[in-house]
Amino acid sequence: MPLHTTRRAVLALSAAVALALSGCAGTPSASGASDPLPSWNDGAAKQAIVDFVGDVTRPGSPSFVPPPERIAVFDNDGTLWAEQPIYFQFLFMLDQLKAAAPQHPEWQANPAFRALMAGDHAAALADQKALLEVLIAANTGMSADDYDGRIRTWLAQARHPKTQRLYTEMVYQPQLELLAWLRERGFKTFIVSGGSHEFMRPWAEKVYGIPPEQVVGSFTPLKFEPVSGALQLMRQPGMEVNDGPTKPVGIARQIGRRPLLAVGNSDGDLQMIQYTTQGPGRRLGVIVHHDDAAREFAYDRQSHVGKLDKAWDEALAKGWTVVSMKSDWKRIYP
Which pTM does this prediction carry? Predict the structure, then answer.
């Protein structure tokens, strides 16, 4: 065989092998060295996720979706990081409240404030209108830059009462793997949370790989106005809450595409998953069930924080994928 013919044959074979390997990359079996989700146990939940991602990203698949349309949305509290014994942002806002309290004796008339000062979080949460009134009062009236600095300082030193980890270390290792793998497969990953975007944006990119512009959360009104001779963004009273039925609104307004994949853990995520799974073509709804009291926390229908009741019933009725933290995750935290 002539040399140039041999060379062409070798190049053709090399190209064929490379093409075959590229077609297999990122579509591994549920176990083995190429496993993209090593902290997930083999089982129905993991296989459902792997099958779905493979199906919508494989060229030639009837369910193939072009990369620009591959949108995955995740709740944050209880889905990407822990939320017990109380939402972490609530603890931050409570610390801001305690710091401001000496300058506001009038807060003593607020029953939620009195309950908070007594350490009775359940009683404070029971009167949500009074609670929001005092918390918002303590967390407004400052510049956006000042508030951002307070958040960063608090997160750098505050620790979880049970684990003594920094709160940004209370993230779930299996979910970090899922986020990274989805991005490898051409997905754009978003946080869609009831927490405020200003509380999540300072650290979400470093911890989750999700940039600030891909965080959809509750928000406080801002005004760009002169303060002490300089123009600043100033936080105003009030808050637009991004939870429950307003999550699809936030998705439509900020993302502009209906997600293919939605992951949540509570009734606050019900409408987000409904909105996702009711779209055309193949879509996947996932519910994370907190059933691991030994390694994390166990709660669902009766919980004051992260209640999973209506969304649990919907998941069973609609065949959404339910992830058992106890059975499906080999480890919880990084």
Answer: 0.87
